[in-house]
Amino acid sequence: MIPPLLIILAVIGSSSHAAAWNDLGHMMVSAIAYEQLTPETRQKVTTLLKLNPKHATWVANVPEDEKPRIAFLRASRWADDIKLDPAYEQDGSQNGNRPSGRESARNVGYEDRLQHKYWHFIDLPFSPDRTALVGPSSPNAQTQIALFRHTLTSTASSDSLKSYDLVWLIHLVADVHQPLHAVSRFDKAHMNGDDGGNGVMVCSPPCTAKERLHAFWDTVLGVSMDTTTAIETAKQLPAADPQLAAISDERVWIQESFEAAQMHVYVSPIGIGVGPFELTDSYKAAAQHVAGQRMALAGTRLANMLNDAFR
Predict the structure, then answer these.
(1) pLDDT for residue 83
(2) In a 3-state reduction of DSSP, which class is residue 177?
(3) DSSP 51-92
(4) Over 90: is that where the pLDDT of 148 sits?
(5) Over the stretch 227-280, which tens digit does the pLDDT of each residue have?
(6) What confidence score (pLDDT) does residue 198 get?
(7) H/E segment holding residue 45
(8) In this structure, is residue 73 part of a structural domain?
(9) Which among 25, 116, 198, 234 is placed 20 to 30 Å from 18, CA to CA?
């Protein structure tokens, strides 16, 4: 169990399906991963991250010996940061959350100025009331993780492209371990799916403020943009189960999140419909426990994946 003083629950009124875990959560996953990278992998990752156009900003005023670690943590936020960068274009349909056109699957490196919000998730469908299901769009988080992993091991790919794919991978591995980034619930109130819990509202007593179910899970372990906070909070998480951490297939990671969503997210007091549903203390505690487990797994699996790629 995570010490209460390290848990900072946030109330956020809106969220995008393309955001998973918040800045703190992504940096926590990266902090766990960085500790498990081999020296050779750290050196290669450090070299590649220097090619990112934001690298100088990431390490500004950071002590020299800490620059590689801090760059790795801040790189985990880059795929979300570009959604707020005017230099990047919102593409796709439905507010950028669905792929549209041939450019949606391209992999051309930093010259690509599309936000690719639909790369952050995969909507595996389920229904508690027999509403007709619609399968996930493609490309999605699963297709892109597979593509980017291949790039890192390819002798034909440039370091610039590997850098671009690396920062996406650091982000997406964390994304797919957030249960609501692998699911969409179809019910009588969501005939087209609830977009990973973004169509469901929740609140805490006395329910004066409401937030999206997705936003609650994104922020369940805290809110911070501080790298030191991320490193220290990550240390409080239980170690990942070694057998589960050894699973390298991203399809299995996604299936785990899909099942976790049904077992731990869409459960009482979350009912069918849009809500708002009043969260209980037991629901919040269970959510914190599940989120901690998923982050710990994501961090170790990310480290394993990079160590294998750069061996």
Answers:
(1) 95
(2) coil
(3) TSTTHHHHTTT--GGGHHHHHHHHHTTHHHHGGG-TTSB--S
(4) yes
(5) 999 999 999 999 999 999 999 999 999 999 999 999 999 999 999 999 999 999
(6) 96
(7) helix 39-49
(8) yes
(9) 234
Residue pair 151/229 in contact by the 8 Å Cβ criterion: no
Higher pLDDT, 9 or 184: 184
What is the pLDDT averaged over residues 125-142?
Answer: 97
Q: How far apart are CA 68 and CA 33, in angstroms?
A: 13
CATH code, 277: 1.10.575.10
Q: What backbone torsions phi and psi does residue 177 show, to the nearest 5 degrees? A: -95, -5
Q: Which domain, by its residues, includes 100?
A: 4-11+21-309
| Cβ(97)–Cβ(141) below 8 Å | no
Please state the domain count of the chain: 1
Contact between residue 259 and residue 177 where contact means Cβ atoms under 8 Å apart: no
Question: Quick check: 16 pLDDT over 90?
Answer: no
One DSSP character per residue, 216-228 reads HHHTTT-----HH
Instruction: Confirm if 123 and 196 have CB atoms less than 8 A apart.
Output: yes
Predicted local confidence at residue 94, as pLDDT: 86
Evaluate whether 100 touches 91 at the Cβ level (below 8 Å).
yes
Q: Is the pLDDT of residue 95 over 90?
A: no
Q: How far is CA 238 from the centre of its chain?
A: 19
DSSP state at residue 129? S
pLDDT class for 10, splitting at 50, 70, 90?
Answer: very low
- The β-bridge partners of 263 are none
Q: What is the pLDDT of residue 142?
A: 98
Cα(308)–Cα(248) distance, integer angstroms = 10
Name residue 125's amino acid. Answer: P
What integer pLDDT is reported at residue 18 of this predicted model? 47
Assign 33 to helix, strand or coil: helix
Q: Is residue 174 part of a domain?
A: yes
Q: Which pLDDT belongs to residue 13?
A: 34
The closest of 273, 277, 95 to 194, measured between CA atoms, is 273
**pLDDT confidence of residue 173:** 98
Does the residue 138 lie in any domain? yes
Helix, strand and coil content of the chain, in percent to the nearest 5, comes to 50, 5, 45
C-beta separation of 170 from 302 below 8 A = yes
